[in-house]
Amino acid sequence: MNKLFIKFLKVKVKRKLFLKNELKKKILKSIIQNQNVNFLKKQYAQYSLLKFSYNTFKIKNICLMDGRSSAVSNNFFISRHSMKRLLNVNKLQNVKINSW
Q1: Could you tell me the pLDDT band of residue 97, with boundaries at 50, 70 and 90?
Q2: How far apart are the first and last CA of the chain?
Q3: In this predicted model, what pLDDT tens digit does every residue of 45-65 receive, in sequence order?
Q4: Are 77 and 61 in contact (CB under 8 A)?
Q5: Is residue 85 pLDDT above 60, yes or no?
Q6: What is the pTM of this model?
Q7: Domain membership of residue 26 as a residue range
Q8: CATH label of the domain that carries residue 76
Q9: Which residue in 19, 23, 26 sits closest to 34, CA to CA?
Q10: Are 54 and 95 in contact (CB under 8 A)?
Q11: Looking at the domain assignment, is residue 15 inside a domain?
């Protein structure tokens, strides 16, 4: 298998885990910050929040064309280098180059 393809699969799994655990994490944080909740429930919520692995919350955007992780556009998931290359040969429709 291609190294780039394996990299995309890993990112896809991380994104699924992030979406799965995001709601749980927000609920636990709100319980911890709530003043009306008793002390034991806050402690249990804090303990549960610590059990989450940190890998599920670190998501890095990766370019779909060449696998770069820096300067990736959120709209297209393409790095600025790949986007410039595609724009020069008019492969991206309805996108214009701004130069000033």
Answers
A1: confident
A2: 43
A3: 999 888 876 655 567 777 877
A4: yes
A5: yes
A6: 0.49
A7: 3-88
A8: 1.10.287.1480
A9: 26
A10: no
A11: yes
H-type helices in 34-72, by residue range? Answer: 39-51
Residue 76 structure tokens: 């297209």
Return the bridge partners of 79, or none: 72
Query: Is-contact 95 88, C-beta < 8 A?
Result: no
Q: Token digits for 98?
A: 């701004």
Residues 69 and 83: their CA atoms lie apart, in Å, by 14
Q: Is position 99 within any domain?
A: no
Tell me, yes or no, whether 17 lies in a domain: yes
Give me the number of domains the chain comprises: 1
Compute the distance between CA of residue 88 and CA of residue 96 in angstroms, rounded to an integer. Answer: 10
**Which two three-digit tokens encode residue 1?**
């298998």
Here the tokens at position 83 are 């986007």
For residue 98, tell me if it sits in a domain. no
Which tokens belong to 31? 């319980």
81 vs 64: CA distance, rounded Å:
12
